[in-house]
Each structure stands twice: as C-alpha cells, then as structure tokens.
Amino acid sequence: MIPFNRPAVVGKELDYIADAIERRRLSGDYEYTKQCHAWFKQQFAAKDILLTTSGTSALDMAAVLTNVQPGDEVIMPSYTFTSTANAFVLRGATIVFVDVRPDTMNINEQLIEAAITERTKVIVPVHYAGVSCNMEVIMDIAKRHNLLVVEDAAQGVNAKYQDKWLGTIGQIGCYSFHETKNYTCGEGGAVVVSEDSLIERAEIIREKGTDRSKFFRGQIDKYTWVDIGSSYLPSELNAAYLLAQLEQADVINQDRLHSWQRYYDGLQSLAANGTITLPTIPTDCTHNAHMFYIKVKDLTERQALIAHLKANDIMSVFHYIPLHSAAAGKKFGRFHGEDVYTTKDSERLLRLPMYYQLGDDAVDKVVGAIQAFYSQK
Ligand SMILES: *Cc1c(COP(=O)(O)O)cnc(C)c1O
After folding, report:
1. What spacing in Å lies between the alpha carbon of 371 and ligand 1's midpoint?
2. Is 371 helix (H, G, I), strand (E, B) or coil?
3. Whole-angstrom Cα distance, residue 279 to residue 275?
4. Which of these, 140, 170, 290, 336, has the minimum number of CB atoms within 10 Å of its CB?
5. Could you give the CA distance from residue 73 to residue 71 in angstroms, rounded to a whole number?
6. Alpha-carbon Rg of the chain, whole angstroms?
7. pLDDT tens digits for 218-275?
C-alpha cells in the first residue's frame, strides 16, 4: 500500500528527545526551542521567529498581532484551510474571499485591489503547495493601502519568492510542522515577525499576555500581565524532534523535489495531450515539493480516479471545500467578485502520495496506475 503521507524520521529525533528528558526541562523556550529559533534566523534571515504549538496557533497569534477589530475586513483566498480564516474570525473580523489563479491555486493578485474597502486591514496570501503567491504585487498593494500582510506559509517552509524565503516577506509569516508538512514535530508551528514594532508584542501574546520572556532574559525583575494572550509555546520535546528535522532539511527537500520531478516527467504525456493538468511553478518561485497534485476533468472523473488508485493500493486525497461555500464561510465572510476558478478547480484537484523517501518505485507505480486509468477510458 502506498499511503498518502508518511511523516519523516530522518535524523537524531530520538536522541534529542532523550536529551531533552535528561535535562529535566520540558516546557517551552529552553535549549531545543532556542536552537530551532537560531536555525530559522540563520537559514531564512528571519528577523524574529517564535515556535508555536501549531500552524493554527501561529495564525491565531498573527491575527492578535494585526490588531484587527470587529467589523474589520481581511482578504484571503477561499481555497485554503479553515485556520487561515478562523484566526481572524475569532477577532471579530469579516473575511473577504478573492478568487484564485488556476495555474498555482494561489490568490489572484490582480483581483485584490478591487476587494479593498475602508475596513480592510490585512491581506493573507496562502502559498499553496509551497509555491509562492505573487508577493511583489501583493506587497505593493499593501503598502499603497497601508495594510498588513500575514503570509500563511504553513506549506511554504524552505521555499522562496525571488531571493526571499516564504514567511519572511510580509510583516508576519506563519509556518506549520504538522505531520503532513515537510518538516514536522507532530503538531507545531512558528510565527515569523519581520516588523520590529511587533516583535515584543509577539513574545507577550505567546506567553499568556505576560512579559515573562523579558523576565527570562533578566531585563525586568518580575513579570506581569500586560496584554491579551494565550499559551502558544510548544514543549521542548516537540522542539527536540523538530530540530533533528531542520538539521536534515536539505536532505528532506532534495528527496521530495526528486519525487516531484519524477511525477512531473512521468505524467507529462497525459498533460501534453490535454487529459490532465500539471502544476505550474512561476519563474520567480523556488518551491519545496510540499505537494504533487494533478487536475482532472471534473468531480466525476476525480471520484473514479480515486477509486481506481485505491483499488491499486494507492491513497490519493483532495481537500479544501472552498470556505465561502461552507456554513461558517457564509456566516463570517463574503466572496468578492466572481468565483471563476475557486470552486471549479478545487473539484478537479487531486493530491498524489508525497513524502520523504517515497521512492522511485512508488512514484512509478502511481504514474503507471494513472496512465492505465486513462488508457482504459
Ligand atoms: C496545515 C495548514 C494550516 C494549519 O496548520 P496546523 O499546524 O495543522 O495547525 C494552516 N494553513 C494552511 C494553508 C495549512 O496547510
């Protein structure tokens, strides 16, 4: 059986967890958390980064940091995970969904400006499949309209737009280390803060609204409640696992990119004759092979293909019922403009197995099964 996902175990995960236990320091912000922070700052030139308990909690923190108020509007694609929207809905904001581009399934940057109103405060580009949104256009719009940009880079860790790492381009970026992501610790995430004026508040929000981080650094002699916040810091056990993965980030990345390219080459002939559509990587983007997806004709064909693959012991999945058509999406948001691609292409998209050490044989088996499906038709 070829599973859809299999979380990587690639280095010193067990050693580091054992060491963290030995140290008798299990709650957050000790040695392993600090080492993860240092790794990200060095590798991605991140101004500041704080590990969180999940990508969702990174987004929750980001929403608090933006200071959105009830009635404010936040622009994002509808084709995303619920957490992208929930974070802002929890602050009382209204979500304004904008259509995606069919080539990348990212927010269509050309449609953002028309969706801006007096109440708009934030734009949330989601880097789908680790392929960057057009950040040049998005950052320019945000600057001209005085908006903040929160990157949902949950899938975009170790991917780039031009010469910048995803998550470090907007004022705030959010990463996920869920077991389905490229680098994992089971459940985990991080918030990247690239705007100086937000750094201190980020620490406070993450530490239950207290200035305990300053206290830990010896900058103040007692810590108190200074702002709203919650507990967003992960345990050292999670950080220990994550550090082991980060140390092997290149190995993981190269392996995934290899599988991605093998899928791409293997499925090229079906794409060339118009049977399926393959993902596009715009020239400005260096992706991280977070996902390999194909687009088929329609919903019916997708169902048949999933069943065919399953009969061949291959697990394929789809995701994201567009948020604007879900019950909560209707209540908390609205779609600006016309839904040309969001719904239609979400019904065509199928994700193939993709994980570290998937291996050539597995990729070839999946490709062969897809080819067989279409030659039978
Ligand atoms: C995975 C994901 C999240 C949520 O991350 P968790 O760590 O699972 O909470 C948010 N947004 C996107 C686009 C994701 O893919």
Report:
1. 32
2. helix
3. 14
4. 140
5. 6
6. 21
7. 999 999 999 999 999 999 999 999 999 999 999 999 999 999 999 999 999 999 999 9
Instruction: Compute the mean pLDDT over every residue in the chain, rounded to the nearest whole number.
Output: 97
Closest CA to 98 of 353, 299, 324, 354: 324
pTM greater than 0.85: yes
pLDDT tens, residue by residue, 47-89: 999 999 999 999 999 999 999 999 999 999 999 999 999 999 9
Pairing relationship of beta strands 292-295 and 285-286 according to DSSP bridges: unpaired
Q: Please tell me the distance between residue 183's alpha carbon and the centre of ligand 1 in angstroms.
A: 13
Which pLDDT score, from 0 to 100, does residue 377 have?
A: 79
DSSP string, 169-226: SSSEEEEE--TTSSS--SS-EEEEE--HHHHHHHHHHHBTTB-HHHHHTTSSSS--B-
* Top mutation candidate among 57, 78, 83, 104 for ligand 1, by most atoms within 8 Å of CB: 83
> Which residue's entry shows tokens 């993981």?
252
Mean pLDDT, residues 293-321: 97
Cβ–ligand 1 distance for 77 under 6 Å, the answer no
**225 φ, ψ (degrees, to nearest 5):** -80, 115
Which residues of the chain are in CATH 3.90.1150.10 domains? Answer: 249-376
Task: Say if residues 80 and 152 touch (Cβ distance below 8 Å).
Answer: yes
How many Å lie between the centroid of ligand 1 and the Cα of residue 79?
13
Architecture field, domain 249-376? Alpha-Beta Complex (3.90)
Q: Where in the chain is the domain with CATH 3.40.640.10?
A: 13-247
* pLDDT confidence of residue 157: 98
Structure tokens at 149: 């940009």
What residue ranges in the chain does DSSP mark as E strands?
Answer: 48-52, 73-77, 94-98, 120-123, 148-152, 160-161, 164-165, 172-176, 189-193, 285-286, 292-295, 333-335, 349-352
Question: Is any atom of ligand 1 closer than 6 Å to the C-beta of 154?
Answer: yes
| DSSP H or E segment with residue 376 | helix 360-376
Distance 353 CA to ligand 1 centre (A): 18
Task: State the Cα–Cα distance between residues 7 and 28, nearest whole angstrom.
Answer: 23
> What token pair was written down for 120?
């708009």
Instruction: Give the residue carrying structure tokens 């904008």.
Output: 98
